[in-house]
Design goal:
161 residues; alpha+beta; 6-stranded antiparallel beta sheet; 5 helices; 10 strands
């Protein structure tokens, strides 16, 4: 069961989150932003250890649901992931894009790219808060499961010129 709890937060962070969400109060958008940020932070902390540990990793998904997921590649089905043209993004791949100083994150869950609990295409994710004309290959950065660094999607594309 998932339910909100109170966590002490510095006032400057509280107001920054509220402003980032575009709300005059701490509402649903701000709460979703905090949940997403903490989930991705926890996933990023456990990502480099994914191949070296067989212990469960809490909150590995972006939905913030309770429960655990195995953190090893051995327990994940190798065929699950998102096929983006000729580039295969395995389950657990993190995606990042930024526009006008606002960074957004998504994760490959099963066979979908998920951001804010909504499945999106790479183009829809790249243009989520953009101008609608952004090239997803040049706007999205990827971090594959077990990788320590982010790479531009265009640079990961097979057969790129």
């Amino acid at each position: 069961m998932s339910y909100p709890i109170s966590i002490p937060l510095r006032a400057d962070l509280f107001h920054a989150i509220r402003e980032h969400a575009g709300e005059g109060y701490f509402g649903d958008k701000a709460q979703a932003a905090v949940n997403e940020a903490v989930s991705f932070w926890l996933a990023a902390l456990s990502a480099p250890a994914a191949h070296s540990s067989a212990t469960p990793s809490p909150l590995r998904d972006a939905t913030g649901t309770a429960g655990t997921a195995q953190a090893t590649a051995d327990t994940t089905l190798p065929h699950r992931g998102y096929q983006w043209k000729r580039l295969f993004l395995p389950d657990g791949t993190l995606l990042r894009t930024a526009f006008r100083g606002r960074t957004r994150y998504a994760v490959v869950e099963g066979e979908h790219i998920v951001c804010d609990s909504q499945p999106l295409t790479p183009s829809a994710f790249a243009n989520l808060h953009g101008c609608g004309q952004r090239n997803a290959w040049r706007a999205i950065w990827l971090r594959l499961p077990g990788a320590a660094d982010w790479a531009l999607a265009h640079d990961c594309r097979p057969g790129r010129a």
